[in-house]
Amino acid sequence: MRVIFLGPPGAGKGTQAAKLAAHLGVPRISTGDMLREAIANGTPLGRQVEPLMERGKLVPDDVLIALVGERVREDDCAHGFILDGFPRTVAQAESLASMGLGEVSAWSVFQIEVPREELLRRLSGRRWCPRCQATYHVTSRPPRQEGVCDLDGTSLIQREDDKETVVARRLSDYDQQTAPLVTYYRERANVRRVDGNRSMDAVLEDLKTAVEVPA
Ligand SMILES: [Zn+2]
User: Fold this and answer.
1) Cα dihedral 214/174/8/144 (nearest 10)
2) What's the fold here for domain 2-212?
């Protein structure tokens, strides 16, 4: 079982990848988590990518490709895995196809679709606790007291990445960079479109059903 998620920031890919991985009993490979861990541990990779991630810049393809290439060869990936945050470019998809992991036509490729206004609402409403890193949303997951972390009383902040102008730029970056990826997979695999403008549970139920059906 090998699964790829396509879709813009705010579509819920990370959440669904984690839940589906738990359901299937396969690892979720999140490039974002691996990079943050490398930074926290001060590894050579972490020191290389930290200045890029701090400024919201993209991590180069070759770095991500090497990272994923090593990870998918670990024992726990023998029966499959779910990719989260990778591939994001056609170059990354082409490298993934050459990693000896079998034909992509046999993989499950999901494209999660959410209207632009809903993405803007989801992303720009995010709030974050700088102390314990808990995340909130002004409408869908508000803290008990407005602007204050439930867990430790710290004032919540809006991350630079989630400010409306930056969100608009992230979405147009996505259109330019990642939309060609959808074309790439449509030509090679059975890309299944999923309506992401529903509750997380409803989306997850669709995904659980779809992965049981061969691509
Ligand atoms: Zn907190």
Assistant:
1) 160
2) Rossmann fold (3.40.50)
Distance from Cα 169 to the centre of ligand 1, integer Å: 28
Whether 163 sits among the annotated catalytic residues: the reply is no
Between the CA of 16 and the centroid of ligand 1 the distance, in Å, is 24
- Is residue 88 annotated as a catalytic residue, yes or no? yes
Closest by Cα among 59, 49, 15, 8 to 173: 8
Determine the distance separating the centroid of ligand 1 and the alpha carbon of 156, expressed in angstroms.
8
CB-count burial class (<10 Å; 0-12, 13-18, 19+) for 105: exposed
Tens place of pLDDT for every residue, the chain, 215 residues?
A: 899 999 888 899 989 999 999 999 999 999 988 998 999 899 999 999 998 877 767 789 999 999 999 999 999 999 899 999 899 899 999 999 999 898 888 899 999 999 999 999 999 999 999 899 898 999 889 999 999 999 999 999 998 878 888 888 888 888 888 779 999 999 999 899 999 999 999 999 999 999 987 66
- Residues whose CB falls within 8 Å of the CB of residue 141, separated by 6 or more in sequence, listed in order: 135
Residue 55 annotated in active site: no
**73: annotated active-site residue:** no
User: Which pTM value belongs to this model?
Assistant: 0.84
